[in-house]
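Why do we care about 3D structure at all? Because function follows from shape, and shape follows, mostly, from sequence. That is the central idea of this module. The next example makes it concrete: a single protein chain, its amino acid sequence, and then its structure expressed as tokens.
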Amino acid sequence: MRLPLTALILALASAGCTPSPAHLFNQAHAAAPADTPFAYAETDITQLQAAMAAGELDSVTLTRAYLERIAQLDRAGPRLNAVLELNPDALKEAAALDAERRRGQLRGPLHGIPLLLKDNIGARPMATSAGSLALTGFRPDDAFLVTRLRAAGALILGKTNLSEWANFRSSASISGWSARGGQTRNPYRLGYTPCGSSSGSAVAVSANLAAAAVGTETDGSIVCPAAMNGVVGLKPTVGLVSRDGIVPISFSQDTAGPITRSVADAAALLTAMAGRDDADPATATMPGRAVYDYTARLTPDGLRGARIGVLHGPLDQLPGVAPALQHAVGVLRDAGAVVVPVQLPTQGQWEEAEQMVLLHEFKAGMQRYLTRHQAPVRDLDGIIAYNREHADKELVLFGQDLMERAAQADGLGSPAYIAARTQARRLAGPEGIDAALKADRLDALVAPTTGTAWPIRTGETDAFPGGNYSAAAVAGYPSLSVPMAHVNGLPLGLLFMGTAWSEPKLIELAYDYEQRTRARKPPTFGNDTPR
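And the structure:
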């Protein structure tokens, strides 16, 4: 059940009262039209902080504005269906952060800034369901990254919808749909997919429902929704951001990352999120240079003298992609970059091995997570059984073949699994991205992130065109998608990729490109309704 926003919550908050959960669930909100001007549209975190420092804005006012915006666009109007649950303490927490500011006690660069989290990231007092009814009422403690965000002053406004179980339930799934949250809609054309699995996070940020959001990715789940919803998505190197407290798929590939309207905001969030955590062994591999203020790399001439490889492939044949990429390459050259056409020598050769890795690690990771956090179901078999028992709600649109295959997987000591993991990482990393970088002494690779969004058709699986992000995902390397162009009113993204721990360089390059192109356009909420 989704947690609706109400007029009552705002009335009670303005009176200094806290609404009960029952009021939050049961009252209706008379929403304003979708085209009502929004005071903080397209405002970045630096601008919001400057207004707060000048006394022109406070966190309560900003939080209330985003809550009203959610009521207008997510619950009514175009009904984006991006926000799954709101933090019932949001206004109370905003008031506390404002009081700290008045005392001169700033926690960090995100002080008082409202953020949304994908609903596979633990954040109390809200539930963490991964979009599944099987985890109804499940409220684990804050994920490590949430602890870090709060320490930097961020206010957790709520949770966003996602492709159920982060798109690892069925090979015939529908991006942006979950049994708990329903179908999230693309804000540019409402009948089109938002991609997934961080669907709600990308849609919410694009529609200005929060200052920024956090998504997660195993293979494309940050950068694909970012591209299709006209925003920035940064997938960090595996190990830069702790996964502790996140519903898992694969410890080899899972990571969380920022989804924002600008590269600057992505750098600010990453600065707060990154850090070592004893509960996530992957963070022990982090070099000392990996954690610092990433906003220091927001320089105006980041592309000058850079050597960038451009990947060409089947996506170039999709409508509008080739001319958009050609224009992007022109921007890179005009900025002083040396642009070299390249190919990944091992393109796609890791796919079979990756699938084996994900199936094995999903089974093991889910059991560990569900048991540790005392979830209502304790293993993958329990989830499968729940879905069968509640097929009228959970299995109404597609099945659960990926879960069923994962349940049959051997343990992590299996020689076949160990060999597949080694092979996948080698083919995507050292023999893939690294080989391409070294062959031409490149700083980064760029490519179209994916194609434009496709129509949502009820009862039909995703008409997915493919993407250029899998190499970075499988290798555990960073990737960063920024808006590149629009085709028939739908956004396209440009993907920057590099070797492990190259986030500073990618931010530097992507920021310069973004500032030169200003390709992001706010969404229009075109009413192409799903069939």
